[in-house]
Amino acid sequence: MRRVALLVMIVALAASCGDSSKPGKGPAGPGDNTGAENSTGAGTGNQTTAESGAASAPGTATGLPAGAVLIASDIVTEVVIRPDPEGDPWEVEKVAGYKGQTLVDGIFSRIYDGTLTVYDYHSGEPLTPADIKKTEAEFKNDRSKIGKISFTEDWYYFPEENRVEKRAKSVTFGYELYNNMGKVYAYRAAFRADLN
To answer: Where are the beta strands (DSSP E) in the chain?
Structure first.
C-alpha cells in the first residue's frame, strides 16, 4: 500500500512540475535543444527524446509515448562499476551483473573510426579522436580504470501497466583517480557520448 501511495505522489508531483512547453522543461521539440542541458552543464546535444523514439504515438502533441507520464527529464544516474572490494559489500553486490565492456569498447571504436563525436563533459565542446587518445594515454591506455559510468536519462511511468521505462540519452565514462595510499578518491570524466 505504501508503494502505491508513494507512486501516486510521484506521479502527482511530476504532473505539477510545470508547463512542458517552456524552454528547459520536458522533452525538447524538433530542432529545440534548450531542454538538453542538465544542471552540471553536461547536456546531451541530441534529440533522443520521446518524439524520436519508436514507442511514440503518432500525432501526440506532447511527444510522450502513448499512455506515459514523464516523471524525470535529463536526470543523471551514476553507477560505480568498480567498487572497492574491501569496502561496502552491498556496493559490490549491486554491480555483480555488470557486463559493460562491450559498451565501453564499442564507444571507443566508434570514436576512432569517426562515426561518433564525443564531447567534453564540462564545456560541451566536441572532442577529436586525438583528444581521446591523449586522455587514454593519461590512464596508460587502460580502460579497466573506467570505474564509474553516468547516464543522462528520461524516465516514463505507464500507469495503466504499472511500468517505468528509462531512456538513456548520453553516457559519460569516469576514470578512477587515486590517492597516495592507492585508493580511489574521485573520478575524472573522460567525455560524454550521446546515444541514439
So the answer is: 69-80, 118-119, 126-127, 146-158, 163-178, 184-194
CA distance 135 to 67: 43
Which three-class secondary structure state does DSSP give residue 3?
A: helix
| Pairwise CA distance, residues 13 & 17, whole Å | 6
pTM summary value: 0.68
| Torsion, CA 74, CA 79, CA 80, CA 86, rounded to 10 | 140
How many CA atoms, within 13 angstroms, populate the side-chain half-sphere of residue 178?
8
Which residues of the chain are under the pLDDT cut of 50? 1-61
Phi, psi of 176 (to 5 degrees): -70, 140
Rounded Cα distance, 37 and 48, in Å: 13
